[in-house]
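User: For a reading group we're discussing how well predicted structures match intuition. Take Ammonium transporter. Before you show the prediction, I'll give you the sequence so everyone sees exactly what went in.
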Amino acid sequence: MIVQEQEAIDKAVEAITGDMGALWITLAAILVFFMQAGFTLLEIGFTRSKNTGNIIMKNVMDLAVGSVMFWALGYGIMYGSDLVGGGFFRSSPSDQGYFFFSADDWYNLFFQTVFCATAATIVSGAIAGRTKFSTYLIFSAILTTIIYPISGSWYWPFDDDAWLNTAGFVDFAGSSVVHAVGGAAALVAAILVGPRIGKYVDGKAQAIPGHNMAFGALGVFILWLGWFGFNGGSQLAWGGDDTIAATSVIINTNLAAAIGAIAALFFTWARYGKADISMTLNGALAGLVGITAGCGAVNAWGALAIGLVCGIIVVVSIEFIDKKLKIDDPVGAISVHGVCGFIGTVLIGLFALDGGLLYGGGAKLLWVQTYGSLSYILWAALASFIVLFILKKTIGLRVSEKEEVEGLDLHEHGVEAYPEHISQDK
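Assistant: Thanks. Here is the predicted 3D structure of Ammonium transporter, as structure tokens, for the group to look at:
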């Protein structure tokens, strides 16, 4: 009798723990969903007002198109049980098909959907102000349906069929799986689309200031908040040890963002003689991106170290890409997400409590982290190049000079976002 009662209690506790985990994942997904608003405000603030409506439309469609396509096909490619091409991607079981109808797993679908939309949105900022809306929609659909789900299947199913998981690769919440993939796609897109008119004069980079730094700052605060769901929710459970682990992840996330902002602030202050606002904001984002892979594998000191490195690297990277490579990225998306996604992933090889070089683990994890992250970057870059090159040769990537000068809001959407247009943008 006592044994039966204990079994009943254990079963009830297990059910409650499972429900708490599902609730935590759902709430975390809502926070990540809200990050789309942060990306929108950041991109609007860092660019010119005449393209505000276009930016809004791109970010809304990233979420809308991504939600439908990831539900229909992407989730099956990423998490299906049947391997295709020797494990290159997956397929949903034949009895279920690709269209996802699994009531006991809706919360996981929602959580993964908003991650997928984030990867697509990263590209938007890097090609703002000169890209055809129709072309962008097609690319966003392909990224969320095929490019991101295929590379995601290499690690996140967390089973022996995921080759990077088997190799010992660590990417807790997606510095490489999400951010480096989006950053690599953004790099290719920015190169193929080309710089904005007036960005480079006689081979020298010209500053094209954003029109509303308040929007940019609010966007960063929203992203910072949403990242607690992005990283904390990736614990995928709540209760007991999982509660401690999830809250530790949140603390590491906050510390990395804070020190990233501080590092960018003082680095630019010393470099330019001024406390640069946009670089400081990007420093916070760099810390967030950098710690995303290792937030569950390092302690607070490791989080501070990763955030510090990324806060400095992002400034150097933005300058190098802008001035030396002459690639026009209005919001710094390539550096924040691509470069810092890679750096943050690799630094786990140094700072991981289990297997890190500085904790007696040797260089094995450092090597795995390096080639694992490079695999994501190379895949995203190659796949994006093929898609965008075809689009460029068929329907085109870029709007006309007249449309770019007068603004995408007017020509792509037939309306201006502000009743009285800000004159300096003309």
